[in-house]
């Protein structure tokens, strides 16, 4: 029989699994939007962009609930065994592709950046490179500057804001890896990057 503490841990894990699934779905839909944009189906691309925004907002709400749960929403409840219920589900998860992420190791100090998504690792690595220095390289991803102070409305689903800078990131994990290696080489910062 599971104790209440075990059930709390299970629920925390289910929250985490849900957040990961929502992020995977967001990545898949983002790819669909990029594909629509590349074939110049701008109406479809805009609709997909709106869907991704709504999904991201929902994922943030789930994250807030997860944080509340982990911070002990039910920590005052007595620890007593409860009757076990079996969860029944007929949801089958299928993915178009295996989700990959990046692990960046800075050779000089062995600092490692390994976030839960390739996008977050990409952005955090650029922050270590310093966005001012990266911007001076005038590198592009597609038609857009990799780092810019101007927001690109057409590329909003493939960008993140950090301070006064907008970071337009490449679409695939492989492209993110190649771009980071190139930036590191140009800035004289040795990095080892693994796709995991």
Structural overview:
The chain folds into two domains: 4-70; 102-195, no CATH class. It is α+β, with helices and mostly antiparallel strands. The radius of gyration is 20 Å and the shape is globular. The chain has a three-stranded antiparallel β-sheet with strand order 2-1-8, with helices on one face. The chain has a three-stranded antiparallel β-sheet with strand order 5-7-6. β3 (140-141) and β4 form a beta hairpin. α1 (4-38) runs antiparallel to α2. The chain is 49% helix and 13% strand.
What's a quick, concise take on this entry?
This protein has 196 residues and is an alpha+beta fold.
Q: Note poorly predicted spans.
A: 75-80, 85-94
Count of extended strands: 8
pLDDT averaged residue by residue: 80
Biggest sheet: strands, sense, closure? 3 strands, antiparallel
What is the succession of H and E elements? HHEEHHEEEEEHE
**What is the helix tally?**
5
This entry's quaternary arrangement is single chain
Structural class: alpha+beta
- State the helicity in percent bands: 40-55%
Question: What is the number of independent domains?
Answer: 2
Architecture blueprint of SSEs:
Blueprint: H1 4-38, H2 42-70, E1 102-106, E2 112-113, H3 118-129, H4 131-136, E3 140-141, E4 144-145, E5 147-148, E6 159-162, E7 165-168, H5 173-187, E8 191-195
Antiparallel strand pairs: 1-2, 1-8, 3-4, 5-7, 6-7
What features would you highlight for this structure?
single chain; alpha+beta; 2 domains; three-stranded antiparallel beta sheet; 5 helices; globular
